[in-house]
Design brief:
The protein has 275 residues and is of the alpha/beta class. It has one domain: TIM Barrel (Alpha-Beta Barrel). The protein contains six helices and 14 strands. Strands 5-4-3-2-1-8-7-6 form an eight-stranded parallel β-sheet, with helices on one face. Helix 2 links the parallel strand 2 and strand 3. It is globular. The two termini are 22 Å apart. The relative contact order is 0.14.
Amino acid sequence: MRGLNRHQIYPFIGPAAPRRLQELDADTIKYELGCNIVRTSHYPQSPYFINRCDEIGLLVFEEIPGWQHIGDKDWQTLSLRDVQAMIERDRNHPSIILWGVRINESFDNTEFYTATNRLAHLLDPTRQTGGVRFWQQSEFLEDVYTFNDFSNDVREPEQTPHLITEFNGHMFPTKTFDGEERLMEHALRHARIQAKAAMTGGVSGAIGWCAFDYNTHQEFGSGDRICYHGVMDIFRLPKWAGYFTAARFRRRSVSSCRRQQPGRWETAVRAEMIR
């Protein structure tokens, strides 16, 4: 599997996007970027997006809301409610192949995550579960070992099945208007990880961070409330890494990149289908 993470955030309107834009994102991820799986990081996303994934055959790894923090017992009860709401809403969608029942990049909590995993299997015994963690010695309670690998390499799996659920991202933020050297290195980082993941035994696939740049708070990202982690910018315009994913995953050749205007970097691409 080869894919990207998605935040459903758009310029000026945030996540308040209509059906047309939600569906267009699914089309962009599958047809323009050539992915076969998307992770809904880090929350269940619009039904319009999931419906479109059903229609076009884009696989979905959907997960509960949250990022790194685990609260007290009352908080955990609400998170279990989130597991139930997510699965009851979306279990009839054929595109969904994996439920994320762990708070993204949180520390182990045996009692809590045993409960989320048990509830997911009770509500949907037909699908596997995953729990995204950031270190390899994390307790394995789910069906698939989902792992954010920020080694700038592909670590040998210690548990299988093993799915890389993030790589690159915050390690090398890149803007569409950055210089050629940075744009090229950004693309090469995605290329190297996807190539090595495909050749590493026990690795089921790699989902890069991320499809599109997104808004954040002032203390995170580049200080302008935008994370420049995507292979496309927040307007869905591709960086060179976006052209790489299209070329590799859609089996197209990208023949040229050049500077078009002083102080402004654009990419001129001639893409031809490889027969």
